[in-house]
Fold this sequence. Notes:
single chain; about 160 residues; mainly alpha; about 80% helix; about 0% strand; elongated
Amino acid sequence: MVKNVLIGKNLVASDDQARAVANEYGDKLWNLHKYLGFALTFLFLSRIVIEITLSQEEKMSSKIKNALLMFRKNIRKSEFKHYLIVKYSYTLFYLLIIYMATTGLLLAFESELGIPQQTNHFIKDIHGFGQYLMYAFICIHLFGVFNADMKESKGIISGMVNGGE
Length: 165
């Protein structure tokens, strides 16, 4: 690709020179990916600390228990189902973040951890698979938000944008 771009500009580069340029950009992209992963891992760990410091009724486990109690009391089954699906999807999202952060950190520190090449290749494959799980989750989440905004939770999107005002 580098050689083709250069040819289009009437410039010539050897295969080795073009490969060096391509590798340089690949390395920059990899570093950006790593730093974004570190930032997301930090944000996730911050979320765990926040969860620990919340009052008991604000914790996610309490909210799931409340949803189950709503079901036992037969309070609006459709509302219960929605509430429970939302809370379990948060749990799924956090598990997916743990999965991505763990595999990403293993890849980022492979040499420091002494991970064998074959194991590293496997970790890279499952980390890549996690990317598609994340895309699927985001699409389903966006669909759910737009669906809720058009039906029972009108204004949910504008509330997210302007802070609920």
